[in-house]
Amino acid sequence: LSHVPGPWLSRFTSLTLKYHEFRGRRREYIHALHRWYGPAVRLAPNEASFTSLEAVKEVYAAGGSGYDKTEYYSLFCQFGIRTMFSTLNKEEHRRRKRILAERYTMTNVMREPLLEGIQERARAFTAKCANSVGSVDIYALLHCYALDCVTHFLFGDGLDSLCLPANYEIMAEMTYHQSLQKNLLHYYLPRIAPYLPFCQPRHAPLANEYVIGAMKKKVDQEASSKTQQHESYSLIDRLLSSMEGMPAAAECKDHMAAGIDTTGDALCFAIWQLSKEKHSHVQTKLKEELREHYRSDQAGDLRSLDRLPYLDAVIKETLRLTPPIPMSLPRYAPGGKGKSNVVIDGYAIPAGTIVSSQAYSVHRLNQDVFPESDRFTPDRWLGDALDQNRLFFAFGQGSRGCTGRNLATMEMKILLAEVYLRFSTINENEDQMDMELDDQIISARPRGQMCKVVFT
Ligand code: HEM
């Protein structure tokens, strides 16, 4: 890798990279290296990072699913089992995706009972905001919304953490934790970490109990044939009806976890941006579009939300500037004995090298496609935004990209529509809120885990 530019020390040791990882600063460190050295950077003796479109296509979409995931994804096992997300084996991934993908298609996501359930939850959110005195901590409420929506999709009758305190506890358990360093220790010291008293893995007993209970209920219902398979939109019904064995509880828990912080954080960042005084013109433009084209009380109109260009642009711009998964998605460069090295962005890369891109840098450093890339400018997504869309990496790319993209997008569209059709929002005190991205394993969240907004 000596021909890939990077700090001199990275030729000999990965310690600098690990130091920044443990401090929760990996993303910023890599970003700074890219600013200094360019679109290809050596991070460690056996690791490199890239930001160009060519590299993203090669690493994540070559042959459809891109290069193999690294063992880093073992950190995402559920109940000790590999899921579609954490499986390293391509064949196994393909098999599982074949079973699950149908539930994540736009056709299934657009089914009325599913959309209406999401709208009901968006209205529960706006009711909370309407009834509040002063400001509302939207961070907590949006994570509740995301949890309620994703469980509605997974199990048919989902949680109601927006209203029920016992369900709220599940959201809190999944959201408010500090487990980055513990997870990293388990990854780097798998033999020692389990014996360290301060390093016990994060438990989520309430969430586990809920998932297993919801599954049992479904199985019982099926046994007494109370459900009608053909009308179902839920993932669990698909899993239970599939004749090919799948670890259904682990899979459901994984999709539940994948759908809370990502969608919750994205919505939180979107409302925070729209509520800044300097972005009041963006809020006004969004309201105008909604007033003109969206009748929230008319059945069937929810689908039309997917055709509103400005709403779409606001969401894409939020995900570009503050992607909920902004960090490296590590893969192994393929090859091996007797095979030639792969070429990424003009650099020959030896087999087995860990290669990756991080959305945070891909979205900010390609200034020719995203000029003034630090600014929140939804208009950049209007019209023919072919180049912008090709570089959009918030949901990953290739067949291992986000399966939940359609669902997440509709959840975000419905919530923003319900909010901005009825309310204006301003941030309570912009200077006091800590909305800096705080790195987790591959995701990041607002550092303060709180966002106070006034609804009028
Ligand atoms: C704004 C919201 C979301 C964002 C930004 C997001 C982002 C991502 C990204 C970047 C990946 C690829 C990770 C990698 O390659 O290592 C991914 C994978 C995945 N996401 Fe999402 N996600 C979101 C919402 C959701 C939701 C709501 C669900 C499910 C209910 C979901 C389920 C999944 C699954 C199952 C995978 C693994 C796909 C595979 O390996 O085939 N995501 N997501």
UniProtKB/TrEMBL annotation:
A family per Pfam: p450
Keywords: Heme, Iron, Metal-binding, Signal
Top-rank taxon, per record: Eukaryota
Binding site for heme: C402
Swiss-Prot/TrEMBL cofactor(s): heme
Listed InterPro entries: Cyt_P450, Cyt_P450_E_grp-I, Cyt_P450_sf, Cytochrome_P450_monoxygenase
One GO MF term attached to the UniProt entry: heme binding
Name of the protein: Cytochrome P450 monooxygenase
Source organism per UniProt: Penicilliopsis zonata CBS 506.65
Species classification: Eukaryota, Fungi, Dikarya, Ascomycota, Pezizomycotina
